[in-house]
Design goal:
With 1939 residues, this protein is mostly helical. The longest helix is centred in the middle third of the chain and has 43 residues.
Length: 1939
């Protein structure tokens, strides 16, 4: 759990975004809850409810509490995000674990129960008054925090003490029970006694820094504590367990980066003490320092003011204070670590049978009273979470009766509630958010209190309620000194403390929200026996009174809370105490009229409450009645000032509130006045927000209908002046500031008050500054205003003559205006008026009734028929700019080129946009100026002045561009005006003599209008026009319009490609190719030469997109208007839409239709498909059956040989599926999916694949019910021969697979036949297997494997067999030691056997013998070879290694072997010969070697052709997700898209988030989440923890190394030497029993043994070294090079597999750390997954490992060392430190010291670099790691040098045999008991071939007859090693006594 826990905690604190922190919190919770939930799961089988749990197994709860204890300190962080994340993590933990419930004893009978037991628990005596008068306030922080350091709260006694002290400090002693005193002293004494026992040290001297600190105050503890700047009595942890006393390690000397590194490295171990608070700030007065010698107790020492540069005070792992107990460790450097003893705290544990969270709550209670607001806030957050979920049984105990538990629970509730209320009264911390006070602590405490109220008995609830009321009322005298500043300035009237009132109201607000049951009828009727009964009604009255008091408060924030506190109970108030409504309403109005400025935050709250009240009839009656003190007529206008309030929600609320008043017929409406209408109209013109505008329009309509009800009222209310002002506002041209003088500003000021300051919210809108307000927003506002004006014209009078008279001059004036905007808006006003009239009087025509309408209709038609005006008023400014530019251009010939000024033509002084005045500058003049005039002047220069002319030419180009833009804008204006006029004409419904001008105006609007709102208006007008034609039987225009619309749809070549360009492309899947090349284009990679796409093309493309959008809008409008009648209204529409398909695809075979397509119909078919794709979504569902007719035609196009046809058909059909999912998908499943498997026709497979690709992209979640049908056929295509199909299928599969888990609970898709549904079941089963490795069906291994497979190994083989069966490929990334090699060998041997069997039976070509290839790191080739020989007999392996010559000899024979084992380097060098061959399996061991796609090695590996591809990797590849791309590119090319698209989607977000600062941390987290879902089915990873029950306690594996060249040379040299001969003589001679002879043999063996470890151990003489170096050619490096010592190489490989010590160089090339929380990090980040003990016999070997391996090659490894040289007094400390600090990777030991009964359960991997002759010693050493307390499986690796005496002595069989009968007796300990030839064999080095021959011989011999089994070489145990005597000196003896 170590590394991951620490990393998750780090992310809680430093996650770059909330989503990352959330994910971290979630995973922390899962990690923590795992220990408990697994227990619960076991119980569950015995049919108990999962959501109840008694304590169960205390150790698993202790584990959970250990994690909780690690999270709690983060609640003290200064950073809100960190506190929030920590409380989130706790919340998730509380929710995940079952709710604790006490086990019940039988209920006692009343008789036996004493009175005392049944007594109702008292609520602690609690007086708000006393608290206010005596209590010390809790502010943001207080200066007292530096007086006392507090130790760790290492036991519940200390928690109690800390709480008592905190209470005392605040004057709250009355809250703690008196009985505590004695217990506390006793408990503390006990715990102190235990401390002393544990330590066996002298008790500490305690120096008193000041008389106020009693010795009891300083907590006796072994942990040294840094007092925090922000807290006093709080549980405090120690951040570092892995460090020791170095007197002057002053951290302030480090750079910020080093400090951060240090912070990361020094993570607390996972023990249940609460970790460190923020470190000391430089201003701290006292610092903790160790006292006297080894006793590291805390004492206080005053510090000088050292300025320490604190980077982040709040970080819980902060280490910036200058604490003398720290050792600086730079995690990137690694290195040795010194020890420190640690003692764990047990503050969170509770006695068995108690409520399990009691300890947590007690610790948090202490924090509630902290001086730092952040700590209070954090504690409240966490308490809130625990109470919410787990508070139901607080205070209860196991085995008590229900009644006793209820009373205990009530007592507990009372105690906790009283503490929360105290904090509410005393807290004074406030902060501001925009304009509102936020009291984070009070708000959070109120929520916590509410969580407690959820579980509170009614009695206690009433108590709490009464205290909250006391806080609000404060009806007792308060001395001025206690007032806060805000209160004290006020007069005597406000004799209360506003913060306390604020807090009380907050409490009430949450109380009524969570316990609304109090006010329900059932509660009111209840009669309770006890006298405390208070009816719900009276509580409700109290709440209302309190709120009324609050609403009348002078303080705005109090008012805001008061209003919100009534919201939850509005209904109850109306129903139960209607009599109070009057009073409430008066107070609310008073509140509103009293607002002093625009930023009063309470307005919104008050409005919301008012709005809610107005929905009740009782309230309306109340408002309408005469009895009410303030009638609505005076009330409503008091809301007017809020119309243009700064806060948008207030603006919305006021309009809605007033609208709701108007909609109640019984309410007075005399307040609907001109002021009201002016405000509404202003809203429409200047409001930016759509919702406020819409609401204003609705209110406007209501108001006008009210005015129209009373004859003459409209005239009286709205004067002509108003109308003119409104038109003037609305018609202000774009870009010209609106004149505010006509605006109505209601005033808030009461008589005699100073005018109110207001913020002008409409400044930007009034200024019409187009850089701040877009034209779209302005136009929307103006169109809304125009709609309002049309409503006014319509409502004005029933007599249309009156209306005409008033509005005629205005409207006609604007229609004839020169301004584009004025013409356009006048047209909209006319159109909307006509529409309103038609809707109300469908039978009559407006033009027949109204002269004005007739005139408007005529004018608009005339304008459409004539040419557009020369220019518009809006363009004058641009023209004057062009005028100036032209003059400057021509004059530069005079100034720069020195032409005479007289030769420069005169362009006129004035501009004239209409082009009617003589001698003025017009756009024509401008064209002449840059054309003929310019050329004339240029020609006069001849060839001189080249440089000047080129400068002038540049100027000219700019002017030409301006002129072009001017003309373009003019065109757009023409279109806009013509479209509006045409729409207006259509609305008046008069019949034109020629329709074409009208149609043209509308169609141009649809085709070219950029503003989507106006485009939609044109589309609606087209629909109206077609309706008009249909009603008048004008047949031709509708058909023509629809044809044109279809053409518009086909103009966008992205959507409707050109057949002529693409007809040559037959192969491939265009959609997929396009999507994968997109990202390249987006990144600005244009053509090969880097030229940008032609601007004109881009322009055309955007225009064609516009016309497609417009046509889509038009079809949508048509469909809305005609619905199911559409095709009958426009009979030719169907032909226009699908004509191409009908012509070409009505045949029955793809070939016939392809012929027609090629000959003439190609483009028509594409057009039809494109039109269908656009129109289908708009069609009415009654027309869908018509679409079913064309399914077969689209399907035919899908099978076309033209790639472009397939693409268009796929896109079209996917849209059909999206619209009519049930029908279309059934057709797909029945008709098109089978095409996926068509082996003969490639285009069928391509078309079907492309369709599925589009369906998955388009339907997304709608496709869920059909996912199951699609997955398997798509999966089959992932190994298609065609690259495009393979890539598309892989990509589609990746999307489908994510949906599978969601599919399970859905109902059957409608209309599917039975057999299809049956098929779904089979496919679902297949998918379950795919997604969940454990569900895969059992695979029976057909051959004999000489090993018993464990359950999970069998499951692994099942999974591998499943992959093989479906031609899939995957990554097996089991944890190290779980037997990946064995699982691979099983599947390999089985598949070879099955293939051979099939070949024997069928002799078909697809079963011929193929060899398999295993590629692994060079250190593992031998290992694989021997493992294959060891486990299976049916396959013949060969090692394809060695130098090039040796390999060349083998190459030709490789095919005759079954398995070829080689290394990555060999593959890279020999790829030419290897890629020629076909392989059955290609297995990459340690496959993450190919993580970098660019290297030669990776490219070579990817050239290998194999039917089945497997990657094995023990280190999870998730270290860096980007590496996955390369791995999957080997397994399933295309599965993760192209590298660039993968990079775009995953690489960039992750890279940009590397430093954790990027804003897109969550993008990274989400991307990774998606990726994991996608690759999940092809990864199988089991951790040891997961398969624990399957595993033996230890897994012992031998790891063979070959000798290096030097070693071979020396070994052979010895074999020929004199020493060997004399040793052999000694063995052979019969006097061998003589001591001297034995001595001789041992010396020789010792020499060889050292040689196997490292040549440096035997080559000590420089001359000898030089000779050897010469002999061994090519050996240039020194002896220290690890290439000379294969054991060091092997050790490095093993450590790397454990995730330890990846070198800094490696990690920097990695693409940044993964942000996803569940990704085990690379060892450089947090800690590795495994921790290792490395045993050697000799100290020199440890030295070599330390210097040659760690320091040279693995600098980031952190390690400690324990050997004979270690001071024996420190040994225990080293062990403790190693166990407690998960950041230490390795412990180096010698077998003799390490075997001394130490417990090293911190490690889970043991590596023996060398071995003891006596296996018992190795066994003991191994058991260091493997003993009680070890929760993990222990892996033991023994490094053995192949073919040397080591292998012969240490054969695994012998080792196991000795484990079995490890009784070492005297008889079998002499050399005499050993075969002579065996002893002699020890001196020879053997090769593999000889070993194999020997083994065969031995087998034969075993078969022949039994041989007596002798314990080989047992006697060698007596050989003393050199270190054994090192401890035997006086110094170390004295050290062990502690002297």
């Amino acid at each position: 759990m170590t590394s991951r826990l620490d990393r998750l905690l780090l992310l809680l604190d430093t996650g770059s975004s909330t989503s990352v922190r959330k994910t971290a919190a979630k995973q922390l919770a899962q990690l923590a809850a795992k220990s408990v939930i697994s227990d619960v799961a076991v119980e569950e089988d015995i049919k108990t409810n999962r959501h109840q749990s008694s304590l169960g197994d205390p150790s698993s709860w202790a584990e959970l509490m250990a994690v909780v204890a690690r999270i709690i300190p983060y609640l003290h962080s200064k950073s809100y995000e960190t506190r929030n994340a920590a409380s989130n993590a706790l919340s998730q933990i509380f929710s995940l674990v079952p709710v604790w419930q006490p086990s019940q004893s039988s209920p006692l009978n009343g008789k036996e129960k004493s009175e005392e037991q049944c007594a109702v628990p008292e609520f602690p005596s609690f007086s708000v008054q006393e608290l206010i008068l005596q209590g010390k306030l809790l502010l943001a922080s207080s200066g007292k925090e530096f007086i006392k350091p507090t130790g760790i709260l290492s036991s519940s006694a200390e928690v109690k003490k800390a709480r008592k002290e905190a209470m005392g400090r605040l004057g709250l002693e009355f809250l703690d029970e008196a009985g505590d005193e004695m217990e506390l002293e006793k408990e503390l004494a006990d715990s102190a006694q235990q401390d002393a026992d544990v330590e066996m040290e002298n008790p500490p001297k305690i120096e008193e820094p000041s008389p106020s600190v009693s010795p009891m105050d300083i907590v006796v503890d072994t942990k040294v504590k840094e007092p925090s700047p922000s807290r006093s009595a709080t549980p405090v942890p120690s951040p570092s367990t892995a460090t020791s006393t170095v007197p002057d390690a002053d951290i302030s000397a480090l750079s910020a980066r080093e400090r951060n590194r240090l912070k990361r490295k020094r993570k607390p171990g996972n023990t249940a003490f609460v970790a460190a608070p923020p470190p000391q700030s430089s201003g701290a007065k006292y610092n903790a320092a160790p006292v006297g010698g080894a006793a590291n107790k805390a004492r206080l020492v005053a510090t000088e003011d050292k300025s320490t540069n604190n980077s982040r005070m709040s970080s819980p792992s902060g280490t910036n204070g200058s604490s003398p107990e720290k050792v600086v460790i730079d995690p990137t450097k690694g290195g040795a670590i010194s020890p420190k003893a640690a003692q764990q705290s047990k503050a969170l544990e509770v006695n068995p049978g108690q409520w399990v969270w009691d300890g947590v709550v007690k610790v948090l209670e202490v924090d509630l009273f902290s001086a730092a607001w952040e700590v209070r806030h954090g504690a409240a957050m966490a308490l809130r979470e625990v109470l919410k979920v787990q508070g139901k049984c607080g205070g209860m105990k196991d085995g008590e009766s229900t009644e006793e538990n209820d009373i205990a629970h009530e007592r507990w509730c009372n105690g906790l509630a009283s503490k929360l209320l105290c904090v509410l009264v005393l807290d004074r911390f406030g902060d501001f958010v925009s304009d509102q006070v936020i009291a984070p602590v009070r708000e959070m405490i109120s929520q916590t209190l509410a969580s407690l109220l959820l579980h509170m008995p009614r009695r206690s609830l009433v108590h709490v309620h009464s205290i909250l009321l006391q806080m609000i009322r404060q009806d007792f005298p308060i001395p001025c000194a206690k007032m806060s500043e805000r209160g004290s300035k006020a007069d005597a009237a406000s004799s209360h403390i506003w913060e306390v009132r604020h807090a009380g109201l907050l409490g009430v607000k949450y109380e009524v929200a969570v316990r609304s049951d109090l006010f329900e009828a059932s509660f009111n009727d209840m009669k309770q026996e006890d006298d405390t009964h208070v009816s719900g009604k009276s509580i409700l009255r109290d709440v209302v009174d309190a709120a009324i008091l609050g609403l009348g408060d002078r303080d705005d924030d109090v008012r805001a809370v008061a209003a919100t506190s009534l919201l939850p109970v509005a209904q109850h108030i109306v129903e139960q105490i209607p009599e109070s409504l009057d009073q409430i309403l008066i107070v609310l109005w008073h509140c509103l009229s009293d607002m002093k400025d625009d930023l009063n935050s309470s307005v919104g709250a008050v409005m919301d409450f008012l709005g809610k009240l107005v929905t009740y009839d009782r309230v309306i009656e109340c408002l309408g009645g005469d009895t009410v003190a303030l009638p609505l007529s005076t009330l409503a206008p008091s809301l007017f000032p809020f119309f243009r309030h700064t806060i948008p929600n207030v603006r919305l609320a006021v309009v809605k509130t007033l609208d709701s008043f108007m909609n109640v017929p019984t309410l007075p409406r005399d307040w609907v006045s001109s002021s009201f209408l002016r405000l509404l109209f202003q809203n429409m013109v200047v409001e930016e927000r759509q919702d406020v505008r819409d609401a204003s329009l609705v209110a406007w309509k209501t108001a006008l209908s009210i005015l129209a009800e009373t004859p003459g009222r409209m005239n009286d209310t709205i004067t002509q002046q108003h109308i003119l002002e409104w038109y003037a506002m609305m018609m202000t041209p774009l870009g010209v500031p609106i004149d505010p003088s006509a605006f109505f500003h209601p005033s808030l000021a009461n008589e005699g008050d100073a005018p109110v300051e207001r913020h002008n919210v409409d400044k930007n809108m009034l200024a019409q500054d187009q850089s701040l307000i877009t034209v779209e927003v302005t136009l929307r506002a103006r169109v809304a205003a125009a709609t309002a004006m049309s409503r006014l014209i319509f409502s004005w009078s029933e007599d249309l003559g009156v209306t005409d008279e008033l509005f005629q001059p205005i409207l006609l004036h604007y229609v004839d205006s020169t301004s584009m905007l004025q013409k356009f808006l006048a047209a909209i006003v006319s159109e909307e008026w006509a529409k309103l009239y038609s809707a109300s009087f469908p039978k009559t025509l407006l033009i027949e009734k109204s002269v004005l309408a007739q005139q408007l209709s005529t004018k608009t038609l005339a304008a459409l028929q004539s040419n557009p005006p020369a220019a518009y008023h809006e363009m004058a400014l641009t023209l004057s700019r062009i005028h100036a530019d032209c003059i400057a251009l021509l004059h530069s010939f005079a100034s720069d080129c020195k032409l005479p000024i007289s030769s420069i033509p005169f362009l006129g002084n004035e501009i004239d946009i209409t082009g009617s005045k003589e001698g003025c500058f017009t756009i024509e003049t401008a064209n002449k100026a840059v054309g003929p005039m310019y050329n004339q002047l240029k020609d006069r220069l001849g060839r001189t002045k080249k440089r000047e002319v080129s400068i002038i030419a540049d100027k000219r180009n700019q002017v030409v561009a301006s002129i072009e833009r001017y003309i373009e804008v003019k065109g757009l204006h023409d279109i806009r005006v013509a479209a509006a006029f045409a729409a207006s004409f259509v609305a008046f419904k008069s019949t034109p003599d020629k329709v074409s001008p009208v149609v043209k105006g509308l169609m141009n609007g649809i085709k070219n209008e950029e503003n989507i709102d106006l485009q939609t208006r044109s589309a609606a007008a087209v629909a109206s026009f077609i309706e008009f034609c249909a009603n008048h039987n004008i047949a031709q225009p509708p058909d023509k319009i629809v044809k044109n619309l279809c053409t518009f749809l086909c103009q966008d070549i992205e959507q409707t490609p050109t057949f002529a360009y693409t007809r040559k492309t037959l192969q491939g899947i265009l959609s997929f190719q396009a999507s994968s090349t997109d990202s390249g284009v987006r990144n600005g990679k244009f053509g090969s030469k880097g030229e940008k796409p032609d601007a004109r093309k881009a322009d055309e493309a955007s225009k064609s997109r516009l016309s497609r959008r417009g046509a889509c809008l038009a079809f949508a409008e048509l469909s809305t208007k005609f619905g199911p009648r559409l095709l009958s209204v426009i009979p030719n529409m169907w032909q226009s839409m699908v004509g191409g398909l009908l012509s070409a695809c009505a045949s029955d075979s793809p070939d016939k239709s392809d012929a027609l397509i090629e000959k003439q119909y190609g483009q028509d078919v594409i057009d039809s498909l494109s039109v269908l794709e656009a129109v289908v979504p708009a069609l009415h569902e009654d027309l869908w059956p018509k679409l079913v007719e064309i399914y077969p035609m689209v399907a035919l196009a899908l099978r076309s040989r033209f790639a472009i046809m397939r693409q268009c058909a796929a896109r079209c059909f996917a849209t059909v599926c999206d619209v009519m999912t049930a029908d279309a998908m059934q057709y797909v499943v029945e008709t098109i999916l089978p095409l996926l498997g068509d082996p003969l026709v490639l285009s069928n497979r391509q078309g079907a694949t492309e369709l599925i690709y589009h369906i998955v992209q388009k339907l997304d979640i709608k496709a869920l019910p059909y996912v199951i049908f699609m997955v398997v056929p798509v999966l089959g295509r992932m190994s298609d021969l065609d690259d495009d199909i393979r890539s598309t299928a892989t990509n589609t599969f990746a999307s489908l697979v994510k949906m599978v888990p969601l599919e399970a609970g859905l109902p059957d898709p409608p209309g599917f036949p039975e057999e299809l549904l049956k098929r779904r079941e089979d496919e679902r089963q297949f998918l379950t297997q795919l997604l969940d490795g454990s569900k895969v069906e059992q695979y029976n291994i057909p051959i004999n494997v000489k090993a018993e497979l464990r359950k999970y190994q069998q499951e692994g083989v099942n999974w591998l067999a499943f992959l093989a069966k479906f031609q899939l490929h995957g990554i097996l990334c089991d944890d190290m030691g779980l037997g990946k090699t064995l699982q691979s060998i099983c599947i390999l041997a089985s598949k070879h056997f099955e293939r051979a069997e099939r070949h024997r039976q069928t002799k078909t070509p697809d079963t011929v013998h193929l060899p398999s290839l295993i590629v692994c790191p060079p250190t593992l080739t031998g290992h694989w070879y021997y493992e294959i020989l060891k486990y299976v007999d049916n396959i013949r392996p060969v090692l394809y290694t060695g130098n090039a010559r040796e390999r060349n000899r083998l190459v030709s024979k490789l095919k005759s072997f079954d398995v070829v084992i080689t290394s990555y380097e060999v593959v890279r060098n020999d790829i030419a010969s290897l890629e020629e061959m076909n392989w059955l399996y290609c297995i990459l061991d340690e496959g993450h070697v190919i993580k970098n796609a660019k290297t030669k090695l990776t490219k070579a590996v990817k050239c290998i052709r194999a039917q089945h591809r497997l990657i094995l990797s023990g280190t999870p590849i998730q270290n860096n997700v980007l590496e996955l791309w390369s791995l999957f590119d080997f397994l399933m090319p295309g599965f993760l898209g192209t590298e660039s698209s993968f990079n775009e989607r995953f690489g960039k977000p992750i890279l940009s988030n590397r430093d954790g600062k990027a804003k897109n941390g969550e993008a990274a987290a989400l991307a990774l989440e998606a990726l994991h879902k996608q690759v999940l089915p092809f990864l199988l990873r089991r951790l040891k923890e997961d398969v624990l029950n399957d595993l033996p306690p230890k897994i012992i594996q031998d790891y063979y190394c070959e000798l290096s060249d030097i070693q071979k040379y020396l070994y052979d040299d010895f074999a020929q030497s004199q020493a060997r001969l004399s040793a052999e003589d000694a063995v052979k001679s019969t006097t061998a029993k003589g001591e001297k002879g034995q001595q001789h043999v041992f010396q020789s063996l010792q020499y060889l043994r050292k040689l196997c470890n490292h040549p440096a151990l035997v080559l000590k003489d420089p001359e000898a070294l030089a000779t050897v170096m010469e002999k061994v050619k090519g050996q240039t490096t020194g002896l220290a090079d690890i290439q000379n010592a294969p054991k060091l190489l092997a050790l490095k490989q093993l450590l790397t597999d454990c995730g330890i010590g990846a070198s800094a160089a490696q990690s920097s090339t990695d693409l940044g750390k993964s942000e996803l929380v569940d990704v085990p990090e690379s060892s450089t980040g947090a800690f590795s997954q495994h921790r290792v003990l490395i045993f050697c016999q000799m100290k020199q070997m440890l030295d070599i490992i330390e210097t040659d391996l760690f320091k040279q090659h693995m600098p980031s490894v952190t390690y400690m060392r324990l050997d004979g040289g270690t001071d024996s007094s420190k040994r225990h400390a080293i062990v403790q430190t190693f166990n407690a600090d998960p950041s230490i990777d390795c412990l180096l030991l010698t077998t003799h010291v390490g075997g001394l009964g130490l417990t090293l359960t911190g490690a889970d991997t043991v590596i023996f670099v060398e071995h003891d002759w006596n296996p018992m010693k190795d066994l003991q050493a191994m058991d260091r790691a493997h003993r009680i307390g070890q929760k993990k499986v222990v892996n033991v690796y023994r490094l053995i040098t192949k073919g040397t005496l080591e292998e012969k002595i240490m054969g695994l069989q012998r080792f196991k045999l000795n484990i079995a009968n490890s009784v070492v007796t005297q008889q079998n300990s002499g050399l005499s008991s050993m075969d002579t030839d065996l002893v002699l064999d020890l001196f020879r080095r053997t090769t593999e071939e000889e070993d194999a021959a020997a083994a065969a011989k031995k087998k034969a011999k075993e078969a022949a007859g039994p041989v007596s089994q002798k314990n080989v070489l047992q006697g060698l145990e007596d050989l003393p090693t050199e270190d054994e005597y090192q401890g035997l000196d006086v110094g170390s003896f004295m050290g062990s006594l502690g002297r």
